[in-house]
Amino acid sequence: MLRIYVDAATKGNPGPSGGGIVIVGEAIHEQQHVSLGECSNHEAEFRVFIQALELLIEKKYTDQTIVIHSDSKVVVQTIEKDYSKNPLFQPYLATYKQLEPHFSLLLIKWIPESQNKGADSLARQALQKYL
Asked: Which residues form the RNase H type-1 domain (predicted)?
C-alpha cells in the first residue's frame, strides 16, 4: 500500500501556485514539489492531485492499494460525490475519471492540515521557486 500526501500553496487568489507530493510506502519515501502556474487556491489543489496521479502512473505504482490524502475538502468531496457544480472543477473531475482506471485500488481521504505538513512544506518551496 502507498500513502500519497498532496497539498498546494497559492499567493493571492488567484495567483502563482506550487504543489507538494509525498509518496510513502514500505520501501519508498519520495518527495516532489511542482509548479502549478497561475490559478485559484482550489484549482491548485486539483492540479496537484492530478499531477500526483500522473506521477504514480509514470512510476508504475498502480498495481497496489493507493490512498491519497488531501486537506482540501473541495477536492475530496468532488471525487467522492463524482460531481461538481463549479464549471472550473469539472475538467479536473473528467481528468480524474480518465486516470482512475489505471489503478488497482485508489482511495482519497480528507485529512486536517496539521497531518499534511510534509506536502505543505513542499508546496511552499515550489511556490517560492515559482516566484
From this structure: 1-128
Residues 91, 29: Cα–Cα separation, whole Å: 30
Give the pTM. Answer: 0.96
pLDDT digit string, tens, across residues 55-107: 999 999 999 999 999 999 999 999 999 999 999 999 999 999 999 999 999 99
Residue 103 lies in domain? 2-130
Q: How far apart are CA 75 and CA 53, in angstroms?
A: 13
Give the residue among 130, 123, 131 at the shortest CA–CA distance from 9: 123
Cis check: omega of the bond before 14, within 30 degrees of 0:
yes
Crossing angle, helix 41-58 and helix 73-81, to 10 degrees? 60
Number of domains in the chain: 1
Give the domain CATH number at 31: 3.30.420.10
Q: Give burial (CB, 10 Å; 0-12/13-18/19+) of 41.
A: middle
